[in-house]
Amino acid sequence: MGARAAEAGRPQLSDDAAAYVRSMIMSGQWRPGDSVRPEAVGQALSISATPAREALHVLRVEGFLELLPRRGFQVARLTGQDIRDLFEAHALISGELAARAAVRATPDELDELDALHHELLAAAYRKDLALLEEKNHAFHRLINLVADARKITWVLTLTGRYIPTRFYSEIEGWPQATLHDHSKILEGLRARDAEAARAAMHDHIANAGDLLARQFDKRAAGEQDPA
């Protein structure tokens, strides 16, 4: 029974491992050419190497990793434009959900979004970046729930695989941009203006991608210039 239960849980463990590795690559924690060992991934997540290895094979197909003879898995080359493209896809879907939420949000839900935004402001003021990331996630999650579009939200989870779920606070300029962008999103929602909410959300996600892409471009330029 124990082995069977472990086998049943393996797809979830593999998904978790893939999400972890994607996040490390997308956030720039792991660089192109870095070795990625399934044993190390498993140790980091307290899982066995088997689901971790399955995750690495999935990421090789997705283009995040390369599998080299006698050298194992390595982080593949990722450019700033790659990051912008991934965030643009996510931004288009997020914008549609924000437009739906602008039409459907109740006064109580709008008040809850306002409260989350003020908690964001407080976290930023205290420089509590971990709490800022947590409240940012809650803000977006609530908008997606209010939109009440299950199939679109499901597609968002697919593009969301390629958006880092951690380390946002380490992106230069992200905390400040988030506070400004969320204010614009709230304005659209409060006004029941679907197109304004769509544009504000799209620009917010695309802006985050551009900030992250700039870091990648800057790092890549530095690595190519030994001087």
From TrEMBL:
The keyword DNA-binding applies. It comes from the Bacteria. Pfam families: FCD (PF07729), GntR (PF00392). Residues 11-78 form the HTH gntR-type domain. PANTHER family: GLUCONATE OPERON TRANSCRIPTIONAL REPRESSOR, TRANSCRIPTIONAL REGULATOR, GNTR FAMILY. This is GntR family transcriptional regulator. InterPro entries: GntR_C, TF_FadR/GntR_C, Tscrpt_reg_HTH_GntR, WH-like_DNA-bd_sf, WH_DNA-bd_sf. Keywords: DNA-binding, Transcription, Transcription regulation. The keyword Transcription regulation applies. SMART domains: FCD, HTH_GNTR. Transmembrane segments: none annotated. Coiled coil: none annotated. The lineage of its organism: Bacteria, Bacillati, Actinomycetota, Actinomycetes, Streptosporangiales.
